[in-house]
Amino acid sequence: MAEPTPRRDEPRLRPAPLLFEPTAAAADPEHFFDLESIDDPRVLLERATELTLAFRAAADRAMEFQAMAAAQLADPRRFDRLTVADIAERAEWTEDYAKKMVEFGRDLLRGGEGRDRVDPS
């Protein structure tokens, strides 16, 4: 389940940057952000935790953008608006989840804090 984003009066945590891997390293299925080369378990735990937090933050932020896009696409003022069913199909969601994402996106677009997070599972 996605963790809630901080309230507006709380600072956002800045996770470790997601560094792009060289093409040769990315082609190796055993290679993952150079974690396999870390021998010290303390350092490995620290770096793996940093990456976990960074991926969670990226996933949460991406989900917020999905919700805002869904809300914009469903806006009845748009001449080319999409139905909830169309949005669900495009995003590979259920219609119920798409409806919740549209509502969440509308809240975000109105400047809401996203108190009612949507969990895709």
Task: Report a brief summary of the structure.
With 121 residues, this protein is mostly helical.
Task: Write up this protein.
With 121 residues, this protein is mainly α. It contains four helices and no strands. Helix 2 packs across helix 4 and helix 3 crosses helix 4. The longest helix has 33 residues.
Features:
0% strand; mainly alpha; elongated; 121 residues
Topology of this structure?
Layout: H1 23-27, H2 41-73, H3 84-91, H4 95-109
Major pleated sheet: none
Task: Give average pLDDT, whole number.
Answer: 80
- What is the percent of helical residues? 40-55%
Shape summary: elongated
Q: What is the count of DSSP helices, taking H or I runs of 4+ residues?
A: 4
User: Structural class of the secondary structure composition?
Assistant: mainly alpha
Supply Rg.
18 Å
Query: Runs with pLDDT <50, length 5+?
Result: 1-8
- The secondary-structure element order is HHHH
Tally of strands:
0
Range of strand content = under 5%
Distance between the termini: 7 Å
